Each structure stands twice: as structure tokens, then as C-alpha cells.
Amino acid sequence: MFRHRGKSRTLKHNLKLASLLSGVAGIVNVSGVFALHQLTTNVTGHFAFFADEVGRRNFASAGGYLLFILAFLFGAMVSAGMLELMLRRDKQLVYLPPIGLELLVLVGVALLHPELILQYPITIACCLLFAMGLQNALVTRISNSVVRTTHLTGLFTDLGIEIAQLYFYRRQEQWQKLTASIKLRLTIISFFFMGCIVGGFAFSVYAMKALLLAAALLIAGLVYDSVKYKVVRLKRKYRG
């Protein structure tokens, strides 16, 4: 799921990656909306709000939206830098530093006192956007730009195009490629939606500690990937 890159990646790997990280993004998104009244998984809306506040000459508010945009960008830059460094050291564990940093951010925010969250909403939102920038850059890189898990606008656009193309492209290889892509996009959308639903219920009970659920999903994914890798290696060794 995390370890395979390049030509070794299959649809199965991408489906697992998409389902896990889309669920995480859904939880983070709904937690940010409920606690901070801000979108914390993408920056599309923040550009609109930024332009609106500049037009109204509310430069202080505009600065907050600019910080959201830069936080996501910085997260993507840090993630990409970590990946490049790890590619030169240990290609098998290239994903660990970005995921580890994302875990630290999510757990750190989850354990903050509620009064601090209310007192510093912009800072907390920046932290979550930074974490989602980390995640989106990571998943984009290791999936060869096939999977993106933090926003749905482009996904729905691509999904609409591919559903329409099913009518026009009838050759078996074309049909298989389109249906595989549609399956992947529906998986991302479905698990993002499920993450929002589960995260919403968790937030209603545990408030910002709902982010611990997102962290638990990441840890479960890391454990699964490690165990699966060791099992595959043992099977190959046994067969050899």
C-alpha cells in the first residue's frame, strides 16, 4: 500500500491507500468545520474567502486565509522534501517521515485543551491544513499522481468525464481502464464521506479528540503495511 511505487503499484494498492487516507481526511475535515468553522483539508474555498476579504479591505481576516493557504503549501513542500531525502537513504521506508509528522500534528491538536483551541482557531486550522498538505503530497507522489485524498472537486469532475466516456469507448482495454479509474474515484469519495460521518459522531462525543481516530487509522495502516510486507517476504523466502 505505502511501499509500492512506480510500475509495481497496482489498482489494489491504490484502492487500499485511497480508502485509508480518504477516511482520515474526512475525519479531519469535519472536525475542523465543527470546532473551527474552517475547511481544513483543502484550500480552494480559502482562495475565494481571501479575495473577498481583500475586496472588503478586511486585511486582518484576509491574512488568516492566506495563512491557511500557505500552511497547506508548506505541508506539501515538507512532505516532498522528506520523500526526496528518504529516497536517497531507505526507499522501503520512504513514507514514514511524512506519516509520522502527520501523526504528531493530529495527536498534538487532539490533546490540546479546548480553551486553547477556542483561543487560537487560526493556528489550529493551520496545523490541520499543514497535516493535510503532508498527506496529499505523500499520496500523490507514491501513487504516481493517481490518488488524491483531501478534496473532491477534481474527483467529481474526472468521475463525470469517465462515466460519459463509458458510452463512447467500448474496446475491452479502454473499458477496463475506465472502470478501474471510476472504481478508484468512487472509493475515495465514499471513504471521505464515511470519514465525515464517523468523524461527526465522534466529534459530538469527544470534541477535538475525534482526531485520535484519524491517528489510529494511520497507525493501523502502517501496522498492516509492515505485517503484509513481512508476510510476503517470508512467502518468497519459503518458496525460494
TrEMBL record:
Signal peptide: none
InterPro entries, per the entry: DUF1275
Keywords linked to the UniProt accession: Membrane, Transmembrane, Transmembrane helix
Record-annotated membrane-spanning stretches: 59-81, 93-112, 118-139, 184-204, 210-227
Name of the protein described by the UniProt record: DUF1275 domain-containing protein
Species per Swiss-Prot/TrEMBL record: Pontibacter flavimaris
Lineage: Bacteria, Pseudomonadati, Bacteroidota, Cytophagia, Cytophagales
